[in-house]
Design a protein that fits this description.
alpha/beta; Aspartate Aminotransferase, domain 2; Aspartate Aminotransferase, domain 1; five-stranded mixed sheet; 14 helices; binds pyridoxal-5'-phosphate
């Protein structure tokens, strides 16, 4: 089965009792036992729920993994991936990662005795150079938030294999439609399903997918023990999102390519970054390891904070909001929003300036999107 078919059929057999075409929302906390010591397929919805299980099976199939686990948020999924580490263990992470992941590393994991080294993710050899005796995990996010640097997944996977280190990849920005890191040597994939997978900005959710049975067992143990599980309705919404992931991603990308090309031709903005533009320094790598370029575009307004304020006020269709990956186009100011938790020095070090703007391109009519940007940029330049 190919991607778009799997998205609609895997884990989603018609309901055996009623014939319902859609997996029902099993809004129940518990399930009766048939007899003493004889549970039905499910016992208690923290440990497992049929709606969640259908969604987890579909997710795993789309990532070409064997096992999927759904969580109550992307951050709960990141936390679960870290649960395999012990005090004294060391992570080598690329430095361009989601701000909330950085906060979890520094604010929570470090307090539990886990040590971190951050490296330039665009340089595979930088990961190798940072490996220590106790390095147990390499963490990558590609393309990275918000400057869209790529990590060469196969090159870093080869290093991880050589040193027997677990390789974790946050695949939120591409979704499994454009990139399947498990097929390129990654051990565990993490998602904020809040973004493209749910796709409609109406659910907070996360997921962890792996092909390794032993690793899955440890993660499932943690999921059941800590209990950061999504409710049945959120799982149903996310599964519904998966069904249209293929068509949405194609449209997201088509729009993003048109907007990126248009922006690159404007003299009022600087440094347009989009992996699908040949000017992206890793354009060749993007073509090689991804099936598409995604729909996040980053650029700089030369006028700094003042220009950002004018630009945001000038937009009507783009919404000024956190998050990304929904059907509606969004504009985000990483300096004060997604990366607001980082110090100005840390932000500048990874290339985020006061004038940096990140667009999440939705699936509206692209002519309307470009007209909206044109109007806002005119007002910015006044
Ligand atoms: C949003 C996001 C997260 C966190 O997910 P939540 O669902 O907000 O908890 C993690 N990684 C990336 C790349 C994200 O964009």
């Amino acid at each position: 089965m190919k991607f778009a078919t799997k998205a609609i059929r895997v884990g989603q057999e018609p309901d055996p009792t009623t014939g319902a075409v859609n997996v029902p929302i099993y809004q129940t906390a518990n399930f009766v036992f048939r007899d003493v010591g004889q549970p039905n397929a499910f016992e208690y919805s923290r440990s497992g729920n049929p709606t969640r299980s259908a969604y987890e099976k579909c997710l795993a199939a789309l990532e070409e993994g064997k096992y999927g686990l759904a969580f109550g948020s992307g951050m709960a999924a990141v936390d679960a991936a870290l649960s395999v580490l012990r005090p004294g263990d060391h992570i080598v992470s690329s430095e361009n990662i989601y701000g909330g992941t950085f906060r979890l590393f520094e604010g929570v994991a470090a307090g539990r005795g886990i040590r971190l080294t951050y490296v330039d993710g665009t340089q595979p050899e930088a990961f190798e150079a940072a490996i220590e005796e106790n390095t147990k995990m390499i963490w990558i996010e590609t393309p990275a938030n918000p400057l869209l640097q790529l990590v060469d997944v196969r090159a870093v996977a080869a290093i991880a294999k050589r040193y027997h280190i677990l390789l974790a990849a946050d695949n939120t920005f591409s979704s499994p439609f454009f990139q399947r890191p498990l097929t390129q040597g990654v051990d565990v994939v993490i998602h904020s399903t809040t973004k493209y997978i749910s796709g409609h900005s109406d659910v907070i959710g996360g997921a962890v997918v792996t092909g390794d049975a032993a690793l899955h067992e440890r993660l499932a143990y943690y999921q059941n023990t800590v209990g950061a599980v999504p409710g049945p309705f959120d799982c149903w919404l996310s599964l519904r999102g998966l069904k249209t992931l293929a068509v949405r991603m194609k449209k997201h990308e088509e729009n993003a390519l048109a907007v990126a090309r248009w922006l690159a031709a404007q003299t009022t903005v600087e440094g347009v970054i989009y992996p699908g533009l040949p000017s992206h320094p890793q354009y060749a790598l993007a073509k090689d390891q991804m099936d598409g370029f995604g729909a996040i575009i980053t650029f700089r307004l030369p006028g700094g904070l003042k220009a950002v304020e004018r630009f945001a006020k000038g937009l009507d269709i783009f919404l000024f909001a956190e998050s990304l990956g929904g059907v509606e186009s969004l504009v985000c100011h990483p300096w004060t929003m997604s990366h607001g938790v980082m110090s100005p020095d840390d932000k500048q070090k990874i290339g985020i300036t006061e004038g940096t703007i990140r667009l999440s391109i939705g699936i509206e009519d692209v002519d309307d999107l470009i007209a909206d940007l044109e109007k806002a940029l005119k007002q910015t330049a006044l």
